[in-house]
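Is this the right way to post structure tokens for a design question? Let me know if I should format differently. Anyway, here goes:
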């Protein structure tokens, strides 16, 4: 197992040689990302799938039907991403896992069962990645896995077509919330520039991400606003949506994505949490940290993980039971971070 940990990786402009060599040597590659793929997961896997095929390799994209949210379907159409069946992948000699912190989070849908002896390459930017691959390129300072895939394509000398550029730009744009989060670095901006110069459809990505909500998604946002509460000390803001809310608005669990940005947008908070009951009795928590607050330790108290500023966890149970428990832990966690420096804007 190799693990690349170049201290200067945040400004690196190339992928590690062992990663490039293994990709060059592979003949038939299976690409996977995490369950309920977001734009970065879909784009990084899709872009590498396109590039490897362009290099003359057989490549298979694991993208189970029904797992892509409505808002991301345009990427599937744009790049003509086609999912592989488990039967197609038996001859693969390499699995590449993208944007996935833990092996059990892989959206494998039975594919791994037929690939037990195939080595895994693990490319990711989650701080909690468990280094489950034979090759591991984990860069928590990277804005997105798409940023890393861009560096790979450049190192391999792949041409970046406008379609490839659009995919990667969508991953970059989404994981940086439109270049507005603390992971917006000189390198992520540089990669964004390079992708735009390569023909990425920047305006379309922005429109799809920010101005293409269905009426149902909009109604769900209204519920998130309505249910937003702020702790008395102003440090923690949270909201929730029930399974009934999701169904009633015509949405699905796949549509729960960035709604945590609603409680997060309140001035002075250090922690934001969205509780969503995507399936009855299954509660997902999205945690966000503001002002340099890491939410990783809080998420890991509940078996979750992710990034310092954005993490998640899942628990079985009811909202009535789970919310007070998690909020109590969040209050303690926030109190231990120190005194809030900005007065709360409002208290519910
Ligand atoms: Mn990502």
């Amino acid at each position: 197992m190799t693990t690349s940990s170049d201290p200067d990786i945040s400004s690196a402009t190339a992928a590690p040689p062992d990663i490039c060599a293994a990709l060059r040597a592979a003949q038939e590659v299976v690409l996977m990302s995490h369950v309920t793929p977001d734009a970065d997961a879909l784009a990084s896997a899709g872009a590498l799938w396109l590039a490897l095929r362009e290099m003359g390799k057989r490549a298979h994209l694991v993208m189970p039907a029904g797992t892509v949210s409505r808002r991301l379907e345009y990427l599937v159409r744009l790049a003509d991403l086609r999912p592989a069946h488990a039967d197609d992948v038996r001859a693969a000699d390499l699995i590449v896992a993208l944007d996935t912190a833990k092996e059990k989070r892989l959206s494998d849908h039975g594919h791994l069962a037929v690939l037990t002896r195939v080595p895994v390459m693990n490319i990711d930017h989650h701080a909690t990645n468990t280094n489950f691959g034979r090759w591991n390129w984990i860069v928590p300072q990277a804005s997105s896995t798409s940023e890393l895939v861009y560096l790979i394509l450049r190192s391999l000398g792949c041409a970046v077509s406008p379609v490839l550029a659009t995919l990667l730009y969508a991953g970059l744009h989404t994981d940086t919330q439109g270049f507005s989060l603390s992971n917006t670095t000189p390198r992520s901006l540089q990669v964004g520039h390079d992708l735009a110069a390569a023909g990425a459809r920047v305006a379309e990505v922005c429109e799809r991400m920010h101005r293409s909500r269905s009426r149902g998604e909009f109604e769900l946002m209204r519920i998130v606003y309505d249910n937003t509460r702020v702790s008395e000390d102003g440090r923690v803001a949270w909201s929730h949506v029930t399974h009934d809310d999701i169904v009633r608005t015509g949405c699905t669990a796949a549509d729960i994505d960035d709604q945590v940005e609603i409680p997060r947008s309140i001035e002075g908070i250090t922690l934001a949490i969205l509780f969503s009951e995507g399936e009855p009795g299954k509660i997902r928590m999205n945690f966000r940290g503001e002002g340099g607050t890491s939410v990783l330790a809080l998420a890991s108290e509940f078996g979750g993980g992710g990034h310092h500023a954005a993490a998640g966890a899942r628990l079985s149970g009811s909202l009535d039971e789970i919310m007070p428990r998690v909020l109590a832990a969040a209050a303690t966690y926030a109190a231990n971070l120190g005194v809030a420096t900005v007065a709360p804007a409002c208290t519910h």
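Format looks fine. Someone answered above. Worth noting: The radius of gyration is 20 Å. Residues 37 and 178 are 18 Å apart (CA to CA).
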